[in-house]
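Lecture notes, unit on binding sites. The following record was shown on slide 14. It pairs a sequence with SN-glycerol-3-phosphate.
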Amino acid sequence: MAGTGVFADILDGDAFKYYSDGEWKKSSSGKSVAIVNPTTRKTQYKVQACTQEEVNKVMEIAKTAQKSWAKTPLWKRAELLHKAAAILKEHKAPIAEALVKEIAKPAKDAVTEVVRSGDLISYCAEEGVRILGEGKFLVSDSFPGNERTKYCLTSKIPLGVVLAIPPFNYPVNLAVSKIAPALIAGNSLVLKPPTQGAVSCLHMVHCFHLAGFPKGLISCVTGKGSEIGDFLTMHPGVNCISFTGGDTGIAISKKAGMIPLQMELGGKDACIVLEDADLDLVAANIIKGGFSYSGQRCTAVKVVLVMESVADALVEKVKARVAKLTVGPPEDDSDITPVVSESSANFIEGLVKDAKEKGATFCQPYRREGNLIWPLLLDHVRPDMRIAWEEPFGPVLPVIRISSVEEGIHHCNASNFGLQGCVFTRDINKAILIGDAMETGTVQINSAPARGPDHFPFQGIKDSGIGSQGITNSINMMTKIKSTVINLPAPTYTMG
Ligand code: G3P
């Protein structure tokens, strides 16, 4: 159970503590922030409402801790990360339970998220040892006008304090995808969890605590965005921000100082279906891609663009599979669970109503109880409907019938987003040509969009973000290059 056993230290009465200087603490504000369970719509947990002074303290400590961490041998950093990964996996049950209660993640998926996170940490430790263990050696005589009188040695050094802000939908996995690269690269880390997902994050942080990381190297502050959000992202002590979430990221990018940013801000991933596609494969991927975790994934299939000649057949196949989806509480491991909040459900409902008024065909009746929305496929969606462009972040999927491939590519590229997309066809040449024409960070051929495996590069263009993630890219992004140039008194040529 959350907050018990090895996690007892992180709970005080009915409120979870925050983590600073290697200790679990109560905020001097005396206030807490309530976390509402999406299923019961009642307060499930409370976390500390940290103050700006507490953020200042955390930043100060993080700066000091980073200096000695940067002097810790790489293999020791990796060893501690492996230890944290093992502890995290060992305690997957209470963390998964928190995911079920605060973000309504289906029970099995919640366990998968924790295990995947442990694997990510371990892989990151190994990758860090490999890529940070080597640098570059350059000689000067490759550039015109130079003799071989200079040797240049480059290595990767840490940035300092990394601020990590994960989203509600993968609070543990998308936190460790920032924490592990930052730490292996010699940075310290300040984590600001999403409100829903905070308790899962606090448990995950305790696993790092139990692994024995130095005091102050990792901190986790919880609280109201209005109080500490901008204060954190604009804090002069922050040397890098890694953020995943909605368009708040655009505001953060505009306000942040001259520091490296890694931003993943959502998508409207298109699924282009050609006449020769394997329609059973497409239908299976539309279900997985559009409806897993009730569509609350940046990489969810968010619009199907299908050639008119196969549209009826595809819609029938998807309808048949939608009918088999189970709908209910996450504890029952239902396929479709309540969306994260009432405001989210209201937003989704607004998109559905707009589509109805403008004449979309409802393949299932629209049904909602509280935050629970039944899966809905909307056929004959047209570009004048909001759902053709906006991301519902819910179990509602529009189908647009297209009369040419160009029309599909045009719709995909007219979006403000450009995270991922997918194309289904048996003709690999066409798939490559279409994929290359799609303005997205990744194109999947004959499969639904997905971020993983976690070592693959992951990036969006346009409003979907800046920078590239994935384990290797994140480690590189959280370092900078340091050069040392050896100037020789005379040209020197090996064995010359
Ligand atoms: O929504 C977060 C995004 O990173 C999706 O990840 O693993 O569901 O493709 P995934």
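Take-home: The first strand starts at residue 11 and ends at 12.
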